[in-house]
Amino acid sequence: MSRLTENGDRSPAATLRDSELRAQYLSRGGTLPRQRATLIMRRNGRILLVRDRGRSSYGLPGGGIEDGELSIVAAARELHEETGLEATSIRYLFSFEGKYNVHRVYEVEADGEPEARGEIDWYIWWDMKDNTPVYPHVRGILAEH
């Protein structure tokens, strides 16, 4: 949920927005840390990243695990909701604890090209070398992979 400026620093506006979102989530009965299915999809040495509408930073595809839902089912559902892709292979890798989420991290394969859908307004295939703004947990998850 954190936003980074171009040089990787947290902006004051992003910090305020994160606090507002956190308070809103908790006021609706949500608990922290939130359980999340997070996907790593590689093609040609690049990682699929998605950007939520209204955000400037990119993250790994995925989202919240619904009550009673298996995390692997949430992973497949989120991939389809965010990119239109149907997973052909999903493999559990590890759990990663971030500031707001416990990420159940999966490696996924799918045929076809993604398309931005739902809350996603853009996607990229990231080489992990350029200065694309990504959330801190993205680098942490990829460092463990």
List keywords for this structure.
145 residues, alpha+beta, four-stranded mixed sheet, three-stranded antiparallel sheet, 26% helix
Topology (SSEs and partners):
Layout lengths: L11 H16 L6 E7 L1 E2 L2 E7 L9 E3 L6 H13 L3 E11 L3 E10 L9 E7 L9 H9 L1
Parallel strand pairs: 1-6
Antiparallel strand pairs: 1-4, 2-3, 3-7, 5-6
Describe this structure in words.
The chain is an alpha+beta fold and 145 residues long. The protein is 26% helix and 32% strand. It has three helices and seven strands, in the order H-E-E-E-E-H-E-E-E-H. The strands form two sheets. Strands 4-1-6-5 form a four-stranded mixed β-sheet, sandwiched between helices. A three-stranded antiparallel β-sheet has the order 2-3-7, with no helix packed on it. The protein starts with 11 loop residues before the first helix and ends with a helix. The relative contact order is 0.23. Residues 1-17 have low confidence and may be disordered.
Q: Kindly provide the radius of gyration, computed on alpha-carbon positions and rounded to a whole number of angstroms.
A: 15 Å
If helices are DSSP runs of H or I spanning 4 or more residues, what is the number of helices?
A: 3
Strand adjacency order, main sheet: 4-1-6-5
Structural class by secondary-structure content:
alpha+beta
Largest sheet: 4 strands, mixed
What's the overall average pLDDT, rounded?
Answer: 84
The 3D shape can be described as globular
Percent helix, as a range, is: 25-40%
Determine the strand fraction and express it as a percent band. Answer: 25-35%
Terminal Cα span = 21 Å
**Helix/strand order, N-terminal first:** HEEEEHEEEH
Number of strands: 7
Unreliable runs, pLDDT <50, ≥5 residues?
1-17
